[in-house]
Design goal:
Blueprint (H helix, E strand, L loop, with lengths): L5 E8 L3 H12 L5 E4 L6 H4 L31 H5 L6 H14 L4 E2 L4 E6 L5 E5 L4 E8 L19 E2 L13 E5 L3 H10 L5 E5 L18 H12 L3 E4 L4 E6 L4 E5 L4 E4 L4 E2 L36 E3 L5 E2 L2 E2 L3 H4 L3 H11 L5 H9 L17
Parallel strand pairs: 1-2, 1-6, 2-3, 6-15, 7-14, 8-9, 8-14, 9-10
Antiparallel strand pairs: 4-5, 5-6, 11-12, 12-13, 16-17
Helix pairs in contact: 1-8, 5-6
Protein name: Putative oxidoreductase CzcO
EC number: 1.-.-.-
GO molecular function: flavin adenine dinucleotide binding; monooxygenase activity
Length: 375
Amino acid sequence: MRQRMKCVEVAIVGAGAAGVGVGIALQDLGLNNFVIVDRGRVGESFRRWPREMRFITPSFYSNGFGLLDLNSVSPTTSPAFTLGEQNPTGLQYAAYLEALATYRHLPAETKTNVHSITRDKNGRFLLRTDREDYEAQYLIWGTGEFQYPNRCPFVGSEHCVHTSCVQSWAELSGSEFAIIGGFESGVDAATHLASTADRITLIDRNPIGISDDPDPSGSLVPTSALRLRDLLDRDKLVLRPDFHVVAVERTSDAFVIRSHADDRVTVSSPPLLATGFLGGQTLIQGLFENDPEGFPMLTPQDESVKTQGLFLVGPKVRHEGLLFCFIYKFRQRFAVVAAAIGERLGVDTSDFIDYYREAGMYLDDFSCCGESCEC
C-alpha cells in the first residue's frame, strides 16, 4: 500500500549537471523543500559516455580571479580543482557532481523511476514513482539529452549504432567505418577509431569543419578542428560533405548508405550515428509546445508557455536563436529559474540575483550574447 504523497515546493527530475546545479541555486535562495529524482545515479548521463570521451570545454581553476571554471555548476566550485583534470572524462565529471550533491546535502532520490506526471485540480504536479510519490507546486525538468539520442533520422537507421550507445571505442572491431554526422560527436568518434581503423568516412549533409561562426554551438571547437586536420593529414579520413543521407540498406556482407542524390557509401561495419539528441523533454512532450525547429517554447524565465509552473533547465533551452547547449551556457539560467519560483513563493531574491550575477551565473539579457571577434 502506497504512503501518502510527500508534499514539496519543487520537484526536479534529473540529477545531472542541470538538476544538481539548479538544486544548489534553490538552496542558495533559501528554498529547501524540494526533491531531485533520477532513474539512475547522480551524473548518470556522464557515466554512460564512451570511456575515451572527454570534455571539449576545458576546466581551469580560475575562480579566484573572477572567471568561473567553464564546467562548474555552482559559483564556488571547480571541477579542475576537484578532479585535477583539465578535460575530464564522463566518469570523472560524474564524480564531481556526486561529491557536490553529497557536500551540499541535496535531497536526491536516485535509482527512482518516474512513472507518470499529472496535475490535480489546484494545478499541483503529481509525480508517481516506483518508490515514493510527490506533490509539487513547481516542476523543473532537467533530464538532459545524452540518454535520449536521435536514433531514427532516416530509413534503415536500425542497421546503425548511435555513438551514445558505445561503451568504448576499443570494443568496436573492423578496419573501416562510416560516421553519419560531422559535428563534435562525429569528430570525436573518428579520432578514437583512427587508432585501429584503416579508413573512416565522415558524412554530413552540410560542409564539414568549415564555419565562420565564432559560437561553438555552431562550429567545431578548436580542439575538434585540430583533430579533424590531423586525421586528414594522416590520410585516415575521407570527408563526404553535402551528403544528405536518406537510407541505409543492409546487404549480405555490407551496409550501403544512400544520399538524396543516390550517391552511395559502402562499409563492412554498421554505420555510426552522430545525429544528435532529441532530449529528455520528449518524455513529457504534451506539456511543452515546440517551435518550428522542435525546441520547447519558453517564457523569459524558462517556463513552458503551455504548462504554468513547469520549467526547463539544461542543453535544450533556447532563446532568440541562442543555443544553451554547453554547461557554461545553460548554468547561467539556473538562478533565473530559481528566482522566478522564489518570487512566487514570496522570497526576496535581490541579494541572490546579485550574487549569481557577480559569479557569472545569471543571464537575463540576451543582447550581450552575440559572438563577435575582431581577428
